[in-house]
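Subject: Predicted fold for LysR family transcriptional regulator, 309 residues

User T.R. writes:
Posting the sequence so we have a shared reference for the thread.
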Amino acid sequence: MRVSLRHFRFFVAVAETGQVSKAAAALFTSQPAVTEAIKTLETDMGVKLFNRSPKGVTLTYEGAIFLQHAQTVLAAAVDAMLAPQQVQRDMAGQMTLACTHTVAGYFVTPLLSRFRRIFPGIEVNLVEFERPEIERRVLSGEVDLAVCLLSPLESGDRIETELLVRSKRRLWLPANHALLERKSISLRDIQAEPYIMLAVDDAEETTLSYFRNAGLEPNVVFRTTSMEAIRNVVAEGFGVTVLSDMVYRPWSLDGIRLAAAAISDTVPSMDIGLVWSRSAGLSRDAKVFVDVCRSGSGILGGIVYDEPQ
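User M.O. replies:
I've generated the C-alpha cells; pasting them so everyone works from the same file.
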C-alpha cells in the first residue's frame, strides 16, 4: 500500500473545500499532486471517494465514511507530535468549559478527547448554555473558557476571542433539485422555495438578518431544533435550507442523498472560537486547553471549509 499521512491530509482538504484547486492552495501544493493523491487512495482502497462535476467534488457514501476515519488519524498524528513537548503531562487541575448546542454536537468533542489524552489529570467540566448565558457566566467567573459562535457577541471589549474555525454557509437541497442546474443561485432564488428553518443557537436570527439585508424574507414552512430532522425533510424534498459546511452531511438518516450549493450573494460564515474574560484572563488549566486547541483544531490550519465554485 502506497498511502501515507500526506494522502490523508490531501483527501481531507479536498473533502472540506469541495474543490481540488482550493485544497491545493490551502496545502501550498500543486493541483496535480492533490489529484494524484486522491487517485492513489481510490486505487489502493478499490472504492470511489468523490463524485466529480464542473462545480467541484462531493463525497460518495464510501468517501463520507473514510473522511471520519481520516480525520481521526490526522488528529492522532497531532497528538503524537504534541505529546513529547508536554513536560507537565502529570499536571492536575480542573476547569469549566461552556459551549453552545451546535458546538457541543459538531466541534468540541474531538478537542476534549485530544486534551484528555494529553492531560489526563486535568478535569474538564463541560456545560451547555445559550450564547448570551455563556457570555454572562464567562464575565462572572463561573466559566473559565467557552467554545461558541463568535457572532453575534454582545460583551464587546470585556471579552477576548480567538477564531478556531470559519465554516462557509451553503444552500442544502434535494440531490435532484432544479436549482442545481443553474450556474449561480441567489438569495432571491432561495426565497421562492419552501424554507426549513433551524431554530437553535443563533441560526434563525442570523438567517433572517442576511435575508432582510438583501430586502428579502425566507418562506419558512417548518421550524425545528433538530439537525437530523432538517437533513431528512430537505432530502425528502419538503424544502431547502442554508446552513454551514461544518454540520453538512451528504446523507439523511434514511440514507437519502442531499446536496449543497454555493450562494452568489453575501452570506456570513459560521465562525467558532474561544471566548474568555479579558479582565480575569486565562487560568493555568484554561491556557493549556487553549494551547491544545491552537495546535490541532483544524486540519487546514484555519482554511477549514469553503464552497466549491
